[in-house]
Design a protein that fits this description.
ENPP1-3/EXOG-like_nuc-like, hydrolase, signal, 21% helix, metal ion binding, Extracellular Endonuclease, Chain A, metal-binding, globular, alpha+beta, binds 2-acetamido-2-deoxy-beta-D-glucopyranose
Length: 281
């Protein structure tokens, strides 16, 4: 009996990180792969040094997946399935990822304020951006996975700092926001299901600097790719966009092929497919 208990503790200790937010591969976490069309995880960004794979857990379930770059402290991308929003207001908290502070910590995203209060002697921001980094920075906390593409509680879960990047306020509140609502109309009107990837391309040397420390990279570009399916799970539409993260306030629509070629400029190895078979029937 004792041996069994010991074995159980051993197995638990070795497996439990895979049940949390930070996983060694998205394939390890049942439910986390559901945010990728046909369970295919893009090769894009997989080799970026210092990345962590986050299955975004809130109220005891997963809501989307994020490939997070702990050096630049912004996401490489978030992957999600579109949900029709039922309103519900704007989440007031900003969450952080406890397991990016310590892998043995809880699996659920936590309000950064309270996690800090509970651990006054531990700096939470070594491997992730904190709310204070954005304060007075001149940049918006720009959602990659937008809250408007979800119902509660997934909507709340998008308010995690691992899902936001420093975004030009004009671009965030105008051209990018318009693009997001055009997608809402398309997905609600024509798609039984839609899978979306939204990513950021870090800039070479543009950062939010706090106390002389380069804290959060200000991305050069944001990009988006979507795959829309009919009732029989057949792809019927696909597309994407890129936007320079400046006052220019312009979103350029692109085909998946064109977006892939765009991303290739920022990669040393082949970008590969963003969606299985490029979301073609
Ligand atoms: C989600 O956010 C709304 C708006 O702030 C809030 O009223 C609600 O309690 C939140 N839901 C959960 C599950 O935290």
């Amino acid at each position: 009996m004792q041996a069994l208990a010991a074995l159980w503790v051993f197995v638990w200790a070795h497996l439990s990180p895979a049940w949390g937010d930070v996983v060694s591969s998205f394939q390890d976490a049942p439910g986390c792969l559901d945010f990728f069309y046909q369970g295919k995880v893009p090769e894009w960004g997989a080799a970026t040094p210092g990345t962590a794979r986050l299955c975004q857990r809130f109220h005891n379930s997963y809501h989307f997946a994020t490939l997070y770059d702990t050096h630049h402290r912004i996401a490489v991308y978030s992957a999600y399935r579109f949900q029709t929003s039922d309103g519900g207001g704007r989440e007031k908290r900003w969450f952080v990822e406890p397991q990016l502070v310590d892998l043995t910590w809880g699996a659920e995203m936590r309000d950064g304020y309270w996690l800090g209060q509970d651990n006054p002697d531990i700096y939470l921001g070594e491997r992730q951006a904190l709310n204070e980094d954005y304060t007075h920075s001149g940049f918006d906390r720009g959602h990659l996975n937008p809250n408007g593409h979800h119902a509660v509680p997934s909507r709340n879960a998008t308010f995690t700092l691992t899902n936001v990047v420093p975004q030009n306020p004009k671009m965030n509140q105008n051209a990018w926001r318009n693009y997001e609502s055009q997608l809402t109309d398309l997905f609600n009107g024509q798609c039984a299901k839609a899978y979306v990837l939204v990513g950021a391309i870090p800039s070479a040397s543009n950062w939010i600097i706090k106390n002389n420390v380069k804290r959060v990279n200000i991305p050069e570009y944001l990009w988006n790719a979507y795959c829309c399916l009919d009732n029989n799970n057949r792809p019927i539409h696909s597309g994407g966009a890129t936007a320079l993260n400046t006052e220019q306030n312009r979103v350029d629509r692109r085909t998946i092929a064109d977006l892939t070629a765009f991303l290739q400029q920022y990669a040393n190895s082949p970008v590969g497919e963003l969606f299985l078979n490029n979301c073609e029937a």
